[in-house]
Amino acid sequence: RMICSPAQPAGEEGGTSAPTVKLAGFCPSGRMQDKGMEAEVLDAGKKTEVRVLAYDFLEGSLVVTRRPYDMKEDTLVSVVELSAGQLISGKITRVAPFGVIVKLSEYVHGLVPLRHLTDVPLASVPKKFSVDTKVKCRVLKVNPQRRQVELTAKKTLVGSDYQLSKLEEARKDMIVTGFVSNVQAYGHIVTFFDRMYGLIPIKEFEENEAPALGMVVTVRIRH
After folding, report:
1. How is residue 43 annotated by DSSP?
2. What is the per-residue pLDDT for 109?
3. What is the pLDDT of residues 128-163, one digit of tens each?
4. CATH tag, 162-221
5. How far is CA 74 from CA 14, 17, 77, 88, in A?
6. pTM here?
7. Coiled-coil stretches, from where to where (predicted)?
8. Which phi and psi angles does 156 have, rounded to 5°?
9. Domain boundaries, the chain
């Protein structure tokens, strides 16, 4: 959120341009007021509160909104508002061979990869994951530059009490839950949230009991 003053009224494209200290912010006409309500006309120099939606690198300016709906604290308008391990719900808008696309808000969509739909990865998307179905997920990782969000719908990860996402939070003998992301001759790589990962040496497994790629595992941190 920020306070700014319009530099000029709406132009041919509609909307209002407003400067900040070193940046200009553009508010499209459709983001001036909620649908069905008449937008307030802002005179140059009048201060108004807005919320940043995105940064336009081509124009070197901010894209902002002042719609009452967008100004609510619980309205998700950008991927940067999400954090790894966060629990969030959405609605499936697309089902593809590689996974499902979930609408988290009007502005943000996320991908649940195929291997993250179930605790034990399947060869295809289960029928229960259909368009318009509501799903509860956790944020695996966020890429602000590409405005991408990767999610997991693995039941064990979604329901876990603790989500390891920072190295400084890891402690010896801590019990954490992750998933097998790579299998090598020397052991299994276990990935947690926000690209955190660890190694289970092959000697830790009983014969023929090593978890398969993509499976959820609960482990104890040795060091």
Report:
1. P
2. 97
3. 999 999 999 999 999 988 889 999 999 999 999 889
4. 2.40.50.140
5. 27, 26, 9, 12
6. 0.76
7. none
8. -70, -40
9. 1-6+20-72, 79-158, 162-221
* CATH placement of domain 79-158: 2.40.50.140
Nearest residue to 66 via CA among 58, 57, 75: 75
Alpha carbons 220 and 136: distance in angstroms, whole number:
26
Least confident of 29-33, 80-84, 102-106: 29-33
Per DSSP, the three-state class of 155 is helix
* pLDDT tens by residue, 38-55: 767 777 777 888 888 877
Residue 16 has pLDDT above 70, yes or no: no
Q: Is 179 exposed, middle or buried (0-12, 13-18, 19+ CB in 10 A)?
A: buried
Residue 2, strand partner residues: 50
How far is residue 218's CA from residue 176's CA, in Å, rounded to a whole number? 6
